[in-house]
Design the sequence.
């Protein structure tokens, strides 16, 4: 749910990167953070567990500007990839405005990707939300590895509802900003009609 800061005339939007452990969620955010201008980003925070981590930071997009007089600020989060930390995953989804589902393209990770998609749906239900209610982009990551599945196969297995997708190699910064730009656009569009003018 978008948060309006009336004092600063800011619209705060929360985008969560979801998916399996070691699929590239954290790499996405670290790469984005590294490339953003210093004056356009807040401090990156990390909540580490024994085997996994959740990271988040906020940023002010350069090219988007304002909508109806509101300045935009995005808050980007990752969830811990391990289902073991499901309570944390669910908590991070609270008040989510947009989702990036990061898919590990390797053949041996298919079942984990499917399980993570089901887990996402279940965790949204805790907030009386359906996946169809929230803008989402899929990102097929690790496209540079030799043991990856074809996009057509991944689409049939993971993306059964036909969400827009991008291919990526997050560790080499390929596809991460295209994914981010699109989810930011979709998230703004979903909020635009409900925004009051200032």
Sequence:
């Amino acid at each position: 749910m978008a948060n309006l800061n009336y004092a600063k005339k800011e619209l705060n939007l929360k985008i969560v990167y979801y998916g399996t452990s070691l699929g590239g969620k954290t790499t996405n955010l670290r790469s984005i953070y590294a490339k953003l201008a210093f004056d356009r980003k807040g401090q990156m925070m990390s909540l580490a567990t024994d085997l996994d981590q959740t990271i988040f930071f906020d940023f002010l997009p350069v090219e988007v500007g304002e909508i109806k007089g509101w300045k935009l600020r995005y808050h980007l989060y990752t969830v811990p990839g391990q289902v073991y930390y499901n309570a944390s995953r669910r908590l991070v989804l609270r008040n989510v405005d947009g989702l990036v589902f990061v898919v590990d393209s390797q053949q041996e990770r298919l079942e984990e990707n499917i399980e993570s998609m089901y887990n996402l749906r279940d965790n949204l239900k805790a907030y009386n939300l359906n996946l169809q209610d929230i803008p989402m982009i899929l990102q097929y990551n690790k496209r540079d590895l030799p043991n990856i599945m074809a996009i057509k196969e991944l689409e049939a297995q993971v993306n059964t509802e036909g969400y827009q997708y991008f291919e990526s190699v997050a560790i080499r910064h390929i596809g991460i900003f295209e994914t981010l730009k699109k989810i930011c656009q979709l998230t703004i569009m979903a909020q635009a009609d409900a925004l009051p003018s200032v």
